[in-house]
Amino acid sequence: MKIIITGAAGQLGTELQHTAPSEFEVAALTREHLDIIDNAQIDDAIVMHKPNIIINTAAYVKVDIAEDEPEAAFKLNAIAVRNLALRCQEKGIILLHVSTDYVFDGAKEPEPYLECDRPNPLSTYGVSKLAGELYALNLCKNIYVVRTAGLYGSRGSAGKGGNFVLAILKKAKTKEPITVIDDIIASPTYARDCASAIWQILKAQMPFGIYHAANSGSCSWHEFAKHIVTKAGLDAEIKSTKQALYPSKARRASWSVLGTSSNIKMRHWKEAVDEYLDKQGALK
Ligand SMILES: NC(=O)c1ccc[n+]([C@@H]2O[C@H](COP(=O)([O-])OP(=O)(O)OC[C@H]3O[C@@H](n4cnc5c(N)ncnc54)[C@H](OP(=O)(O)O)[C@@H]3O)[C@@H](O)[C@H]2O)c1
Prior knowledge:
CATH class of the largest domain: Alpha Beta
Radius of gyration: 18 Å
Order of helices and strands: EHEHEHEHEEHEEEHEEHEEH
Shape: globular
Distance between the termini: 41 Å
Strand content: 15-25%
Number of helices: 8
Structural class: alpha/beta
CATH architecture of the largest domain: 3-Layer(aba) Sandwich
Bound molecules: NADP nicotinamide-adenine-dinucleotide phosphate
Largest sheet: 6 strands, parallel
């Protein structure tokens, strides 16, 4: 099976490369080699690599800045996905498109969101990602949409300038004051675990449709930060604050927990982040 990974230099793209099963022949294409906004580049990549599957991890991920530049978010998260889906449908290629918990509004608290729940995004980023999902699901028959949440990986997100875990470690080490929101409950997810779930879906040729792939359990970002510094053995006080006191452009759901009704069972977020800290050489 030949596979193209788009956005291959990103957090998830990198972990997909690190965890690819040997039966897949992977062409990991960074934006430099495949800009998915450019249809001609998509066509060239398909001719060159003859993929059976395209995994699309490329995305516009700057959640707050998207409020000021919706065109850029929609161009990549919706229109480029539409164009990919049309080509995949035409050529009989399976499309696995990665999406987000930001398609939900949080009203389901205290129950985790399942694949069948109705999206209602609160931000431009969330709307653009939902539009991408809908294009993909409606235009391509052989389609997987995999929603994940709160990613951190061996490589930080270039679009977001790192990741939450690395940012907390850095601040704690340099004794910077740390204040973290305690009224957004989420599913922080190790990008490597999300990548493994994606490979599991493809290897098992699971039925086409929507899947949630997030570490199990849930926590506030404050609780997550406290766990990180404790496990790293760092002496840092983490103050808590509320979303309302921490102005950000984009609205975020206060409950953003992904569950699944599929066979994909993912380990608890604590176990996942402990392994990540260990791999970063940061576990005490
Ligand atoms: N990060 C999270 O917390 C999170 C949570 C839920 C869902 N997700 C979803 O998970 C997926 C992967 O996210 P991530 O954290 O791996 O993001 P990331 O680290 O920012 O990676 C995204 C990649 O896409 C590339 N890219 C940007 N524009 C492109 C274009 N026009 N053509 C091709 N590639 C392009 C970026 O390259 P450059 O660096 O050159 O721009 C980057 O390598 C996305 O669909 C995202 O919406 C992420």
